[in-house]
Amino acid sequence: MAADSNLIESSLNSLIIATAATAAATVMGTLAAYGLWKKSSGWLSGSLYLSLVTPEIVTGVSLLALFQWVFRFLHLRLGMHTVILAHVGFSLAYVIVVVLARLRSFDRTLEEAAMDLGATEFGAFWRVTLPYLGPAIAAAAMLAFTVSIDDYVITSLVSGVDSQTLPMVIYAMARRGVNPALNAVSTLIVTGLGVLVLLSERLRRA
Questions:
Q1: Would you give the distance in Å from CA 161 to the centre of its chain?
Q2: Which of 8, 51, 94, 148 sits a CA distance of 20 to 30 A from 26?
Q3: What average pLDDT does range 150-173 have in this prediction?
């Protein structure tokens, strides 16, 4: 496996994409969840689940059509940047749902008490709310990373020739027949992602 340059390159691409998408989705998702919690918009919160149940092929084709339309004006091509944007798009809902669930058990009067003691609204969020959300944010980030690094359908539609990810290479290898390297990398992926999911669930319940 270590001698296969194609596997190594695709693994690095997957890690770069998943890390960048997770960082962006976690920050934006946390802020979006906080905004939804403050405004108590039931219909908007419920609409988040629409992206979770939408078939990946529909999401992928829609994003591809959007990128192609935008690129008519910007003269860009599909590549790592489009894959990262796509992953941020579908990871965002997971982060919002996890963080919003944590916020629903948060006592609003704690922020009000902090502001009564002289803290600004941002200061109350930074010193009171954010530490409380820490476990949920970490769990959401792990979940987003897992979903991102494992995606094949959407990635295959919006990637360029220089942005092949590990799932895409594994699929191509599997179609050619049994390969010992494929067995090894599959074992590593299942083990690694399994650990992340277990940690995410434990943090979510903290």
A1: 23
A2: 8
A3: 85
* Residue 139 near residue 201 (C-beta atoms within 8 A): yes
DSSP letter at 127? Answer: I
CA dihedral of residues 60, 66, 71, 77 (deg, nearest 10): -10
Considering the entire predicted model, what is its pTM?
Answer: 0.83
pLDDT at 3 over 80: no
Six-digit token string for 95:
């982060």
Token pair in block for residue 13: 């691409």
As a whole-number percent, the residues of the chain with pLDDT over 70 amount to 87
Structure tokens at 37: 């919690």
Report how far residue 2's alpha carbon sits from residue 122's, in angstroms, rounded to the nearest whole number.
48
